[in-house]
Amino acid sequence: MAEFSNKTVVITGGGGVLGGELAKYIGGRGGRVAILDLKKESADKVADAINAAGGKAIGVEANVLEVESLKKAHEEVVKAFGPCEILINGAGGNHPKGTTSKEFFSREDLDAQDLISFFDLDPEGVSFVFNLNFLGTLLPTKEFARDMIDSGGVIINISSMNAFTPLTKIPAYSGAKAAVSNFTQWLAVHFSKVNIRVNALAPGFFLTEQNRALLTNKDGSLTNRGNTIISQTPLGRFGKPEDLNSTLSWLCAEDSAFITGVVVPIDGGFSAYSGV
Ligand SMILES: NC(=O)c1ccc[n+]([C@@H]2O[C@H](COP(=O)([O-])OP(=O)(O)OC[C@H]3O[C@@H](n4cnc5c(N)ncnc54)[C@H](O)[C@@H]3O)[C@@H](O)[C@H]2O)c1
Description:
Layout: E1 8-12, H1 17-27, E2 32-37, H2 40-52, E3 56-61, H3 67-81, E4 86-89, H4 123-144, E5 153-158, H5 171-190, E6 196-203, H6 212-215, H7 224-231, H8 245-252, E7 263-266
Parallel strand pairs: 1-2, 1-4, 2-3, 4-5, 5-6, 6-7
Helix pairs in contact: 1-2, 3-4, 4-5
Residues 12-13, 15-19, 37-39, 42, 62-65, 90-93, 132, 136, 158, 160, 203, 205-206, 208, 210 line the site of nicotinamide-adenine-dinucleotide.
């Protein structure tokens, strides 16, 4: 419990599926949780659940891409709970405009109207994904890490499987998460003299509302992509949001004081398996 007990924890994207689960876990272990999200309603819903269970939480509207919005959110957090001691950068995601329709390019795709080939990728879609994942990690860190300079603190970024080896179809999201992993290492070094540790979780495949239709059919059976993922995951299942909790707890614990700059796969063995 000590890793969160009476600590002020800020979690961006805390109204989402994975962020929401992490926020509830922290709230149940004595942390004061500020749930920042673009969607205030989603943030409030998670905060309400934590408060109803006897924890301490607030929902705060914030856009991780807008400096002024983050400043305002920071003021709200300090007023309610005091300076930030643990920051979890959970806001992130992909966009269809940064995604190709097919895994492999064929010559005839150049003339096809009904698909997005590599040559159709929209620069705005690609920037959206890079900004949300990379800048959306860097800007909240700029805002909240100030609080940790004298007292020390912990920053947890959320990378992904695709940062180690890119996944087909999602060049922007894979590249942006590789940037998040790289930034995790860079920041760990940069902040090493002021006692701020920086690490990242790299979730494998977690079935969430965003990818459910891609991975499962209406009757619950797996799509081709879903089947491929499970066949490449030695533990033979998708992740459940609560699978992230133990790694979060370990990385935030005070006796993990010598661990900084690591990106931990939580993936059922996906990244260790060559498929043969
Ligand atoms: N679901 C997976 O399988 C998986 C795998 C690897 C990594 N991840 C990463 O985990 C994190 C959480 O993913 P999730 O599946 O819970 O997604 P989610 O869509 O459920 O949650 C993301 C949350 O971020 C919020 N958000 C979006 N843009 C924002 C902005 N500009 N400012 C503030 N908040 C914003 C959304 O409102 C949402 O509540 C993301 O970084 C995602 O890339 C997810």
